[in-house]
Predict the 3D structure of the following.
Amino acid sequence: MSLIDLERRADPRVELRQQDAAVIGIWGPAGSGKTNLAINLAFELASMGHRVCLIDASTRRPAIAAWLGITDPGPGILGLLRLARQGRLDSEQFQRLNHEISFGNHSLTLISGISQLSRWPEFDAEAIAGLVDWLSPQTSFVIVDLDSDLERGLIKLEAALERNQPTISFLERATRVLMVSGSDPVSVNHSLLAVRELDFGYELIANRLRSSVLGRDPARQVRDTFYELLSKELLAVLPDDPEAVDQSMLKSQPLLMIAKNSKLRDAIRALAIELIKQREGRLNNRE
């Protein structure tokens, strides 16, 4: 079990909200740090009093449950997708299949990832839309950790949908997409190749920034590089902090619990605050 207080919710009631959630897809090349960002961004948002649902939507490399030390993740997303497809998803079923992670005076909801990789065809567009649409009025933020692969046309004879359609379907339901890129030259090149497959609007985050590979003023260098090559301003720059990340995995806890003063934690918290401000501005503009 995780060192975090993990429990199934006993109360089947879900507090309904009148406003839709910000559905944030975390996407980028494999190894760019998507899962670390998704976990810690979700915890930071929840720590500031927002109702957060964290979804492990990877059909190739699910990792969130293992990162948080959850040894029995259960049916998780497969069970919820099945109910959403059948139109039978309700509060009681949702509470039965999700994990409620409590920390301090706060909590967030985790939908754990696929338990059998061969069952990826169950991530059909109809079920994904049904799940996200059901979650949206009940949460402030839905954070979705996604696969990196987007190439279209990959078909398996036994499946009724393309291999990368699950990721594309989640991106289609996202209200915003955060693309995570490494900051070193090789990772930047990988990101430039990957983004060619992305048919959605996105905001760019540079991860694992370090002067040892970029020299003086690495933040300016990476900002200038992405602006020159993609005409994109960076939404955030996250410093490299392997020691803090290793401690997070070792202790199965987010940075805000085991590395409160790390520069990486500070940068992710600042990103969370910016997302909150932008969501509140969007909601105010509706009124």
